[in-house]
Amino acid sequence: LGTPVICSNTSSLPEVGGDAILYIDPKNFSDLKKKIKYLVNSSQLKSELSQKGIEQSKKFDWNESGVKLFNFLETLMTNA
Q1: Which of 7, 23, 49, 80 is the most exposed place for a label (fewest CB within 10 A)?
Q2: How far apart are the first and last CA of the chain?
Q3: Contact in structure between 44 and 16 (CB atoms under 8 Å)
Q4: pLDDT score at 79
Q5: What CA–CA distance (Å, rounded) separates 24 from 35?
Q6: What is the pTM for the complete model shown?
Q7: Cβ within 8 Å of residue 79, ≥6 positions away
Q8: CB-based contacts of 38: which residues, under 8 Å, 6+ apart?
């Protein structure tokens, strides 16, 4: 939707978000505070993350994911 995102740098989130997200250490409140301030005060960063987020989201599709999951489950059933 074009909303700039700040999220944790742990788990699979960086893999999903790519370079379209401003990452934080979830155990470091000061990092979150700093990144929020940085995002609020930088029009250029907001615009850049907005555009990158839209592009990144195009890599994911519910229908395609559903087909891949179905095919995977089907192979499990045929190999059981």
Answers
A1: 80
A2: 42
A3: no
A4: 82
A5: 7
A6: 0.75
A7: none
A8: 22, 45
